[in-house]
Amino acid sequence: MTGPRLIVALDVPGEKQARALAEQLSPALCRLKIGLELYTACGPSLVERLAALGYDVFLDLKFHDIPTTVARACERAAALGAWMMNVHCLGGEAMLQAARAAVDKAAGRRPLLLGVTWLTSSGTDEMAQIGMPGSPDSLVARLAGLASKSGLDGVVCSAHEANTLRAAHGKNFVLVTPGIRPRGAAADDQRRTLTPGEAIAAGANYLVIGRPVTRAPDPRAALEAINTEIGKKGLRTED
Ligand code: C5P
Question: Residue 74: which of 101, 54, 51 has the closest Cα?
Fold first, then answer.
């Protein structure tokens, strides 16, 4: 899979702001992520409209429900033309396998199916609250293993976990990492950030980056600067 490594998170409240960013940026420089806020505001047609502008769209809705419901939602997301989508690994093996079978049915290009392991906003305390023993590190390793075994293409993870997950699951396991900040950029509410170059060096295939691009005075210039930092014009070329 070649093309841009950067996935810009369109964490904006509506179509007007999303379109303005899509028009300033370029499908040659980045892919776009639609999350819960924008999807809830604009609905599925936005996926089709951004795809029509030439963008690969990561539909970040983190499905987690009974296997049949998740499978059907994945089928619909694939039909919209999403390039990547995700499901919660906590849904278990039957749900993950159903999601994989659903994306396999996609007409045309099969979307990439990623697992969400344990959200980086949650830690040991949150695990204990829901009765889970152990540490986030061991849970992430376990859930990434479940994703791999269930036929998912990879996981969304912290760049701090990328090295370990790459070693455990090999070069074809797709690692998508948020929590990225160019050197000198505001951390916002992110903790333990890595720079784009560090995340790639740790084994990430794609980087999700939001505010350092979307809130920059010149989003396109900010994007180009990050692509320059990554090297090879920010393109994934090796496979
Ligand atoms: O603006 P910023 O670069 O912090 O945005 C990061 C994006 O990645 C947001 O859309 C956020 O929801 C998402 N994300 C994250 N951490 C995770 C999973 C997703 O920051 N563990």
Answer: 101
Torsion over CA: 43, 216, 117, 84 (sign) = positive
Contact 181, 193 (CB under 8 A): yes
Question: What is the rounded CA–CA span in Å between residue 53 and residue 56?
Answer: 9
The closest of 13, 85, 2, 20 to 47, measured between CA atoms, is: 85
Q: Which of the following is catalytic: 16, 33, 62, 233? A: 62
Q: Report CA(33)–ligand 1 centroid distance (Å).
A: 10
Tracing tokens 């980087």 back to the chain, one arrives at 207
pLDDT digits (tens, 9 = 90+) for 32-54: 999 999 999 999 999 999 999 99
The single residue listed with the structure tokens 């376990």 is: 142
Q: What is the pLDDT of residues 4-23, one digit of tens each?
A: 999 999 999 999 999 999 99
**Which of ligand 1's atoms lies nearest the C-alpha of 215?**
1
